[in-house]
């Protein structure tokens, strides 16, 4: 017992758990690990994207920059010598390259048709027209054929004495020189390209239909909307992003994937009317041995593709907002 006036000894109270478990106090190692966790989570996406970004930089961006730099050098006797904008000025003076650029404008004008065809076919398949399962396979089949094979087949079909002209003659129409008329040949090649490649766009549209709200279609049918009204007011707004994707990828395919058809069907003729920048680049590099000029044409093609793609996205977004 305490004696006198001495105060009793008081033991300090302990906070925390009393069962022997370790108590984590503010400022301790556990708290530091807790703060490091969110920081690691913030950097995790960049770490996962790093391999893909490295591949893009090494295999895409770096060669592109090398090509742009090479386009400012000369060919032949001036090989490796800086020539400034001489190659680009020569492109502007070359009638074949000007024809190639004008054909790019033609492709832009024909793009809505190239997008509408697989879009309408996907709509009919989605609405389950009779035989829709068969149509899905048939429409995709040309996509697995090589452009060389497709070109060879249509060379036979479109020959002046071929089956197409024979059908025209049977109904009293004069034969058409499909691949020899400068005013017709480019449309024919583009049509064959669309026929051979719209199967992939069809698959993309069908994937887009899987995200479409079926209740909106049912409501439109109940309200008595026609097929055209359903397409315009329900399907097109609902597939706005899908249409943007198909439009951009189709345009890129037209600018970069028609070489095989051009080489087999027309070889750039007649009179250079079916030249595209891609084919012009191959001529300058592979036959004329002018890699610097070909690099300049490649740079112009890249800028054209970039500008057309951005313009398409802007116009499609504006159309989507208006709808």
Automatic annotation (TrEMBL):
Pfam families (UniProt xref): BPD_transp_1
Residue numbers spanned by region Disordered: 1-36
GO CC aspect terms: plasma membrane
SUPFAM superfamilies listed in its UniProt record: MetI-like (SSF161098)
Main location: membrane
Chain segments annotated as transmembrane: 43-62, 104-127, 139-160, 184-212, 245-265, 292-311
Alphabetical keyword list: Cell membrane, Membrane, Sugar transport, Transmembrane, Transmembrane helix, Transport
Similarity field: Belongs to the binding-protein-dependent transport system permease family.
Name of protein: Multiple sugar transport system permease protein
């Amino acid at each position: 017992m305490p004696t006198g006036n001495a105060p009793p000894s008081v033991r300090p109270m302990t906070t925390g758990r009393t069962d022997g478990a370790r108590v984590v106090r503010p400022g301790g190692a556990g708290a530091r690990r807790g703060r490091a966790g969110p920081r690691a989570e913030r950097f995790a996406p960049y770490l996962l994207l790093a391999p893909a970004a490295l591949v893009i930089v090494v295999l895409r961006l770096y060669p592109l920059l090398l090509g742009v730099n090479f386009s400012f050098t000369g060919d032949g006797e001036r090989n490796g010598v800086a020539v400034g904008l001489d190659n680009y000025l020569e492109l502007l003076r070359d009638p074949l390259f000007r024809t190639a650029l004008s054909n790019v404008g033609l492709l832009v004008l024909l793009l809505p048709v190239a997008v509408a065809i697989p879009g309408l076919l996907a709509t009919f398949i989605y609405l389950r027209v009779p035989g829709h399962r068969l149509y899905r396979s048939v429409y995709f089949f040309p996509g697995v054929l090589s452009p060389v094979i497709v070109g060879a087949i249509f060379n036979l079909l479109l020959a002046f004495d071929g089956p197409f002209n024979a059908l025209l003659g049977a109904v009293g129409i004069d034969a058409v020189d499909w691949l020899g008329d400068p005013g017709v040949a480019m449309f024919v090649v583009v049509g064959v390209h669309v026929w051979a490649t719209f199967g992939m766009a069809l698959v993309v549209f069908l994937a887009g239909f899987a995200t479409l709200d079926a209740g909106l279609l049912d409501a439109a049918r109940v309200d008595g909307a026609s097929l055209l009204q359903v397409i315009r007011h329900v399907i097109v707004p609902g597939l706005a992003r899908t249409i943007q994707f198909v439009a951009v990828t189709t345009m890129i395919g037209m600018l970069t994937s028609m070489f095989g058809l051009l080489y087999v069907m027309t070889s750039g003729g007649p009179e250079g009317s079916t030249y595209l920048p891609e084919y012009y680049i191959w001529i300058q590099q592979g036959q004329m041995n002018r890699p610097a000029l070909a690099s300049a044409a490649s740079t112009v093609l890249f800028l054209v593709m970039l500008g057309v793609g951005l313009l398409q996205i802007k116009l499609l977004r504006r159309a989507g907002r208006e709808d």
